[in-house]
Amino acid sequence: MPDPVRLPYSQLDQLPDRDPEETAEWRESLDAVTKAAGPHRAAYLMRRALEHTAHTEGTDLPSLVETDYVNTIPTSAEPAFPGDEAMEARITAWNRWNAAAMVTRGSKLGLGGHIATFASAAWLYETGFQHFFRGKEGDGSGDQLYIQGHASPGIYARAFLEGRLTEEQLDHFRQEAGGEGLPSYPHPRRLPWLWEFPTVSMGLGPLSAIYQARFNRYLEHRGIKDTGNSHVWAFLGDGEMDEPESTAALALAGREGLDNLTFVINCNLQRLDGPVRPNFKIVQELEAQFRAAGWNVVKALWGQAWDEIFALDTDGALIQRLRETPDAQFQTYATRDAAYLREHFFGTSDTLKAIGARLSDAKLLELFQTSRAGHEPRKVYAAYRTAVEHKGAPTVILAQTVKGYTLGTGFESRNANHQMKKLTMAEFRTMRDLLELPIPDSALEGDLVPYWRPAEDSPEMQYLRTRRAALDGPAPARKVVAKPLPIPADKAFDALKKGSGSQEIATTMAFVRLVKDLMRDKETGKRWVPIVPDEARTFGMESLFPTAGLYSPKGATYDPVDRDQLLWYKEAKNGQILNEGITEAGSLADFTAAATSYATHGEPMIPFYIFYSMFGWQRTADQFWALADQLGRGFVIGATAGRTTMTGEGLQHADGHSHLIASTNPAALSYDPAFAYEVAVIVKEGLRRMYGPDAEDVFYYLTVYNETKVQPAMPEGVEEGILKGLYRFKEATSIEGAEVPRLQLLASGTAIHWALEAQALLAADWGVAADVWSAPSWTELRRDALECDAARLEGEDRIPYVTRALAGAPGPVVAVSDWMRAVPDQIAPWVEQDWTSIGTDGFGLSDTREAARRYFGVDPQSVVVQALAALARRGDVKPESVKEARERYGL
């Protein structure tokens, strides 16, 4: 007879049960408890049993992914608080005041700012600043702090209290045009001595923090720097966790046991416009998500006032009520009176009514309006201490707070508080009284709320300085102490400059060969960080596997299937290559950590991130912008570039526009080299500019191709033209005749070969003399021209390089590339000759290279027709020649 209690089937049915009678007795016991004491008691006993087995040697049970809606750490288990709580409360109060004052003063100019976020999270930051966050005056690395973007006013307020900012600087919050203002959010490029990590593009902070913690381990495992004392802290909003990037790398952190990482998620239950999970519970959802990914989860939800209430919950009714109440309802509870709370929260069962009857109105309001763990330093300290002492897994702290806390009833838990940018003077008086600040009424009589701080010799300031001195100085702080790197010897570069002889190689392979040689350099070879999203073999990088190794914190715990082959898949704890799997976002986060190591750790690294060019900028342009903000340096390589070189791959693999996206990033120096020697010149210059004595905060984007060609030797005297973006590669073939039509063909990347073939066809078939120019960088030509335009407005006589280079060149100019026409069109305004561009506008398609190029009208014959059309418009050739050419070439 089937057991009516059991499900139709169980996963355990496929395993032998050596004692079915014992199993039945356990089930019967559980049924009896449920019947006699209720389901909560049965669940409680099961939880206790699971906890016991988890600490019993030899047992192997998966943990629960969700626990009750209570604190992880009981009050009785909290460690002793090591600081002066009253003193820290006064310091926190000053920071709350000055943050609100700064934003309110700025609002008079219509600049706005965010008040409610820091008001909610003040103790989450202050407890860290007083007891955990290490500065850079020790080993130079300190902790890495990813500050929640909207909380920046609170960080500025603390820097003001510490004497790192002045009142005048606070009054220039969001006023950067004059050069002295404070950026609205954490922007290292705008305030490079304070901010280390840009975070306000939501979702990028958590992703970057995970890969930063991972890169810290990478540096340590490779013997470059001991980062054991560095801890990564990421402060996030619960609404921010909706962004896919926020949770994209949780499994990586859990899988690699990054116990040097702590997420602090401020669960005030509010997004920008309203509740995060109106009908659900975001804390429970996040707990399950993080636990499933292998994280240690610490819930810090309720303040100490709740302890005596939980002690009254003898049958689990209160726990059940907390579990079933959706977040939007909790937000409502935080704004209602005691009568509402008695009716709507405690009025749902006899047990809860009895509990509610024992509570005063004041106690009810304290429970639901103020008593949150995130507002109590002892609770926050206990959570942080647990996080930094936990080993073997990263920790997430889910800290519950009230958004807009201490700003008054007009702010607290209001849906609109994210958009509220100022307090009235009456609200400041209320805030002053609540925080018990010694600000006289006379200071609040005008229209401008004052900043306020204790005297320099006050106990608060002495305490503040003592605590930060014990933690190795101020934080956050950005400090660049890295020494320049020597430029590698010319030998590696000369190999490419000599050309490939009769051998055909692609520029992708040329780049890989160059880097392979550079990685052997005794001075800088170990500093190269190859990063690839699981396409290393596509790019010909498998030769690096056995020599450089692929980084894995566990090394190789298996016998590689290709161990007996020459280019075997070698994983090692000290491996140099970061093979990230199929994740461009993760790879770029890795690149960012490596590209900024010169500042974060004082250790300059030379990352190169190589990817399908279509899947780089298009997918992760936001991260590239953050990379620029973070002042990253390194080489980004868009491989298999162009819209027509990816034979057979089709629409979503064909990149004809990444250079256009890259051109929008001011820190990206974009190049589309045609030949191997151009790659060598650009990389050498990049090393000088990014790692030399006068290092610049830029990064390089190079597109390389998978089309094999004979690589010519470098002509004399072309280095300047390569770096500036244009030089004459091959002059026109000599043609007899007094009035030979003349033409200039400009091309970049693999299109140089179409231009060269078109040059021969024009001479042989049409008697046209065409010079062929290589244009390694349309974008750099444009930037130079824009700078010259700006200089002329200031009275300087500067002519753009592209204008000077083409000065006197006879005939019209025809530009061709494997990119959409807007890429070469960037330079059109500064070309004095008649301008025509042809390119690969539209969606890509799957076919042979020849067919695709004919389709887009960029193959050599199409270039000839466009050239004749440009000449015909000037009257240099007969108009009929255009039609004749189309017919001759079958276009």
UniProtKB/TrEMBL annotation:
Pfam family, one: Transketolase_C_1
Chain ranges of the Transketolase-like C-terminal domain: 725-859
Positions annotated to bind Mg(2+): D238, N268, Q270
Catalytic activity reported: N(6)-[(R)-lipoyl]-L-lysyl-[protein] + pyruvate + H(+) = N(6)-[(R)-S(8)-acetyldihydrolipoyl]-L-lysyl-[protein] + CO2
Pyruvate dehydrogenase E1 component middle domain segment(s): 489-709
EC number(s) given by UniProt: 1.2.4.1
Cofactor(s) required for function per UniProt: thiamine diphosphate; Mg(2+)
InterPro entries linked to this entry: PDC_E1_N, PDH/Transketolase, PDH_E1, PDH_E1_M, THDP-binding, Transketo_C/PFOR_II, Transketolase-like_C_2, Transketolase_N
Highest taxon of the lineage: Bacteria
Domain Transketolase N-terminal: 148-308
EC top class named in words: oxidoreductase
UniProt key word Iron: no
Region (Disordered) location: 1-20
GO molecular function list: magnesium ion binding; pyruvate dehydrogenase (acetyl-transferring) activity
Keyword entries, A-Z: Magnesium, Metal-binding, Oxidoreductase, Pyruvate, Thiamine pyrophosphate
Described function: Component of the pyruvate dehydrogenase (PDH) complex, that catalyzes the overall conversion of pyruvate to acetyl-CoA and CO(2).
NCBIfam families membership: aceE (TIGR00759)
Full protein name: Pyruvate dehydrogenase E1 component
Classification lineage: Bacteria, Bacillati, Actinomycetota, Actinomycetes, Kitasatosporales
